[in-house]
Specification:
The chain is of the alpha+beta class. The protein has three domains: 52 residues, Alpha-Beta Plaits, CATH 3.30.70.20; 220 residues, Aspartate Aminotransferase, domain 2 (3-Layer(aba) Sandwich); 49 residues, Nuclear Transport Factor 2, Chain: A. It is 33% helix and 20% strand. It is built from 13 helices and 13 strands. The structure holds flavin-adenine dinucleotide. The site of flavin-adenine dinucleotide (FAD) has 33 residues, from helix 6, strand 4, strand 6 and strand 11.
């Protein structure tokens, strides 16, 4: 089973650095985001102790790799634990969906469901902000966490960056700025940590309105994906990159409309080392999980909680998104099962 055992009676220096030393850190950033004394910094996707630790233990309480709590988190989110036949976690139903807004379809990754739902939730007052991933102003194609408060800002952050983005920092910003209802978008490791934060620290605050989980095989290092492969191998100037998508291979679309491909196996060497520890492909603790799963221009959507299903259904009725028959997603469902099983086997 993943994770390391809890410590009885925390002592000085018995903090999350212990998880790093045991080489169990997923690099989700939760510990750094919640540290109340600011003694941790997020350096090269790991927490680093930079000031004297107060030994409060909060970093350990939220760490997905410390004291394995997945079943307890399932109880907390769904009111029950998964059954063995629930291969990709608990859910209410699945849908294949797409945004109706052309502006969203122009910039989104797959069907634009994430952007459409966040926009709808903001416009109808269900949320007053969302923690997502934006793009750095200083470093080309580099993701940065961003708290977005308007539909225009949500739109600016659409699309996928296949490099880890510590969106929990954006959630923390929303929390400290007293936003009452926040949505969160992130990878499975972040959703796992977010649920630990919710269960252990946020239960009296209730700010988390919606957790959108992105299906995730892996993320890559910036140096490997952007510099070695896209700049080096394809010879592309990063200013020229409009979109990167993974559909069996890495597909790079340029601003002039050209499409170039790199075999996925060539990119594997640049998988972020933290990702090799992950056991969750489909963000099994999210309200809504989304992925492309080989579909063209549609988002495969897993509606897991009542809250997620209600938002989706209201958005569909309001003509914000449209759906097509789930029967058309047989191959995608197969892939979902296969990839979920593959990651689960790492337990
Ligand atoms: C690292 C990574 C790996 C993925 N791997 C797979 C996979 O193996 N199989 C699969 O089917 N799907 C995968 N996805 C999900 C897929 O790329 C789409 O995000 C998903 O289908 C939703 O598409 P959309 O058009 O509805 O989203 P959009 O409307 O385009 O919205 C995407 C949202 O994701 C946020 N985002 C972008 N990059 C990141 C990031 N690095 N970290 C956190 N949030 C981010 C954006 O801010 C935006 O809010 C992956 C996503 C990421 C970030």
């Amino acid at each position: 089973m993943a994770g390391i055992a809890p410590i009885r009676g925390l002592k000085f220096e018995q903090n999350v650095t212990r998880v790093v030393q045991a080489d169990k850190c997923l690099g989700c950033s939760a510990c750094v985001a919640v540290c109340p004394v600011g003694c941790l910094e997020f350096v090269e996707r790991k927490p680093e102790l930079v000031e004297k630790c107060a030994s409060c233990g909060i970093c350990l309480i939220v760490c997905p790799q410390y004291e394995y709590a997945f079943p307890a988190l399932e109880e907390s989110v769904f009111g029950r634990q998964r059954r063995p036949q629930e291969e990709f976690g608990i859910y209410r139903r699945m849908a294949i969906a797409k945004a109706n807004d052309e502006n969203i379809l122009h910039v989104c990754q797959d069907g634009g469901v994430v952007t459409a739902l966040l926009t709808y939730a903001l416009e109808t007052g269900r949320i007053d902000g969302a923690a997502v991933s934006g793009i750095s102003e200083d470093k080309l194609c580099y993701p940065v966490p961003r708290l977005v408060l308007t539909p225009q800002e949500v739109l600016e952050c659409a699309g996928t960056r296949y490099i880890f983005s510590p969106n929990l920092f954006a959630f923390q910003k929303g929390f400290t700025e007293n936003k009452k209802n926040i949505a969160f978008v992130g990878t499975p490791c972040q959703i796992h940590a977010l649920r630990k934060i919710e269960m252990n620290l946020l239960r009296y605050f209730n700010q988390l309105q919606l957790a959108v989980g992105l299906l995730c095989t892996e993320s890559f290092t910036y140096e490997g994906l952007m510099k070695q492969l896209i700049q080096g191998k394809l010879g592309l100037d990063l200013h020229e990159v409009k979109k990167i998508n993974i559909k069996g291979k890495i597909l790079v679309t340029t601003k002039s409309g050209e499409e170039k491909a790199i075999p996925l196996k060539e990119a594997k060497q640049y998988t972020h080392p933290r990702c090799n520890l992950c056991t969750d492909f489909s963000a099994e603790l999210a309200d809504i999980s989304v992925g492309g799963l080989g579909l063209d221009g549609w988002t495969f959507t897993i509606l897991r909680t009542r809250r997620g299903e209600e938002l989706f259904e209201e958005a569909r009725k309001a003509n914000v998104i449209k759906t097509k028959s789930i029967e058309k997603g047989e191959k995608a469902l197969d892939l979902l099962k296969r990839l979920s099983l593959k990651k689960r086997k790492r337990h």
